[in-house]
Amino acid sequence: MQIGYARVSTADQSVDSQVAALSAAGCDRVFEETASGAKADRRVLAEVLDYLRPDDAFVVFKLDRVARSLPHLLEIMETLKSRGIGFQSLTEEINTTTPGGKLLFHVMAAIAEFERDLIRERTMHGLKAARAKGRVGGRPRQMTDNKIEAARTLLQDGTPVRDVANMLSVSVPTIYRWIPGATR
């Protein structure tokens, strides 16, 4: 049996075109879901994966309709493979029920993983080069040297910590963190 899965992200979108394509591809049943692809817990996706039996084919209109990332897609594919279930994506023309489809899927997955590794490598080199030039990532410090000196002076003059924090536009814990020994 061919079992389809159609998903849209928001209620104002329609699954109609996906359902029509899945039906035209020969799906015996189509599960429909409205949920963000970023959500790890999609009830209908879990239901369709549970519904599938060995020798069935899980059919989607497009890869991004089923998985939120490549690792998630590979996890789903491995689960399907271990259960003897095929996978087909209509848009990308992937069909793991054929030897050529299996090869194409693995080649695409390897290329995607290679690209992720290249991006990670370029990011690390960029951060290293920026550090070498004296640039540091992250948020700017709230307490500059001038603010620290002003806070010390105000606290020594008897100004309450809360008032000092308000004057410097920082939180009370920030004052305690930067001025050891500050008292209420």
Descriptive report:
With 184 residues, the chain is of the alpha/beta class. The protein has 7 helices and 5 strands; from the N terminus they run E-H-E-H-E-H-E-E-H-H-H-H. It has a 5-stranded mixed beta sheet, with helices on both faces. The model has no long low-confidence stretch (mean pLDDT 87).
List keywords for this structure.
alpha/beta; 7 helices
**What is the distance, rounded to the nearest whole angstrom, between the alpha carbons of the first and last residues?**
72 Å
Radius of gyration: 28 Å
- Topology pattern, helix = H, strand = E: EHEHEHEEHHHH
> How does the overall form come out from the CA principal axes?
elongated
- SS strand fraction: 5-15%
The chain-level structural class is alpha/beta
Q: Count helical runs.
A: 7
The residue fraction in helices comes out at 40-55%
Task: Explain briefly what this protein structure is.
The chain is of the alpha/beta class and 184 residues long.
How are the SSEs placed, and which strands pair?
Layout: E1 2-8, H1 16-24, E2 29-34, H2 43-51, E3 57-60, H3 70-82, E4 86-89, E5 94-95, H4 99-132, H5 145-156, H6 161-168, H7 172-178
Parallel strand pairs: 1-2, 1-3, 3-4
Antiparallel strand pairs: 4-5
Helix pairs in contact: 5-6, 6-7
